[in-house]
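Q: Sequence in, structure out?
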Amino acid sequence: MEKHNFVTIADLSKERIMYLIEMAQEFEKHPNRELLKGRVVATLFYEPSTRTRLSFETAANRLGARVIGFSDAKASSVSKGETLKDTILMVSNYADVIAMRHYIEGAAQYASEVAPVPIINAGDGAHMHPSQCLLDLYSIYKTQGTLNNLNIYLVGDLKYGRTVHSLIMAMRHFNPTFHFIAPKELAMPKEYKLYCDEHAIRYQEHTAFNEKVIQDADIIYMTRVQKERFSDLMEYERVKNVYILRRDMLRGVKDNMKILHPLPRVNEIAYDVDDDPHAYYIQQAQNGLYAREAIFCYCLGISLEDIKNDKTIIK
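A: Exactly. Output:
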């Protein structure tokens, strides 16, 4: 199996998505292996991160790789004015694969064009978050038993939320019906609604968020209103607490419905929801480990067959 970049979910076929999900299933059975023993993974985080960075680094460690990189660009030569190109080329001298988060949209694509090693997009601005998308798909598949014909409700910051943008593109293969729930200031951008139209993806838009609106949901995907994306803090203050999911709103939902959230949570999910059987966002974050183990192997040319035949499993 050849090496690959993992920059956008939009390039992946339905078959490749299901292939990666099957990889993640294998890693959930046995996460500790030595498939990447002797390899070096670089994590370059130009933006703050907890779950994404730590799960990438944990995935590398559990597969036997060594990890280098930075979690704060100010602690690197970036602070001295080093360009993205030069940083990528330098780190490529030391690492077999680079997982990178950057605040500029398109940075990961650019890095993939100049790097001699595979690039994994760990989030680029408000654009894409394909590794989060894969763990979201895996979480949906695990909880629903399918990715097909689901009612998926995306709630909150749909303007800047790169996770929901990636999810729309990935779900084009599976005949979803989306419900976009957002205030006008944070509505789904026109380009993603046009994408839905072009790919015959059904969607409805709402500004109300209540028990009646969500009663047909299979998945409710909550998002944080991202303060760091706002140039006008007054606008942020107006919208930050518009939608809060509370436990009493879940009385009429479907039994199979699960609540997802890319985290971190601020106020958008009340803490009394955590103990509800519909809550799945903590398990969703755990699934990130298995999804990112799959991504590393995919990028480094390790096949599903290699994983199934692996004799390096550590009990």
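The beta strands are 40-45, 66-70, 97-102, 119-124, 151-155, 177-181, 202-206, 219-222, 258-260.
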